[in-house]
Amino acid sequence: MKQLIFSILIAGPAAATLAAQAPQDAPLPEALREAEAILKVSHFPSPVYATTDESRRDFRYFWKHNTAVLSPEEDVQLEACGAYIFYNGQWNLRVRYGTKDFARLFRCPKGRMKKGQPYTFADNWRTDNRLLGGWAMWYFIGTTASGKRVCGYGKLETVGEVYEEGKEGGQG
Fold first, then answer.
1. Burial, 33: exposed, middle or buried (Cβ in 10 Å; 0-12, 13-18, 19+)?
2. Which of 16, 78, 85, 93 has a CB 3.0–4.6 Å from the CB of 111, allowing a cystine?
3. How far apart are CA 24 and CA 8, in angstroms?
């Protein structure tokens, strides 16, 4: 299941165009423009370098990281989360999860985020047989107790290089 969930972040022919593009000035997806961005999202490490695992035969490269989300202002009922990838000059939806999936992946009972409490998906990764870098963006959308629609998002760069101990800007 994990393999399916995380290998879909970057796959298919569009992946070949990822490395050369950067999303700094790209407009956000409409769903994120329609909500107030108050949720804080972070990824660690960032950027993410590829690693290999000789015992795995299904994929050659792994970009392992964690993703965390926090509501600093008030409690939020999470409705949806997921990831976009950036190619062809825009953010393209790759996966969307509902409340139950968020609750399971981020260990957040019933998807009810408490003010100031971080929720972390510690076992997040991308896999591929090709050593390609690119950009992903995890997003979160929910509603506060007062009915305000809120969101948060965090961009994540994956590097098309294998991690080497001591490499400047690398993991660890």
1. exposed
2. 78
3. 23
Answer for the pair 137, 151: CB distance below 8 angstroms, yes or no.
no
In order along its 172 residues, the chain shows pLDDT tens digits of 343 333 334 444 344 444 446 688 889 999 999 999 999 999 999 999 999 877 777 888 989 999 999 999 999 999 999 999 999 999 999 999 999 999 999 999 999 999 999 999 998 988 888 998 999 999 999 999 899 999 999 999 999 999 877 655 455 4
Q: What are the CA-CA distances from residue 72 to residues 39, 99, 118, 138 (Å)?
A: 7, 20, 9, 18
End-to-end CA distance of the chain: 27
Cα separation of 152 and 90, whole Å? 18
Strands 149-162 and 48-52: parallel
Query: How many whole angstroms separate alpha carbon 172 and alpha carbon 60?
Result: 20
Q: Count CB neighbours of 64 within 10 A.
A: 19
Q: How far apart are CA 37 and CA 47, in angstroms?
A: 23
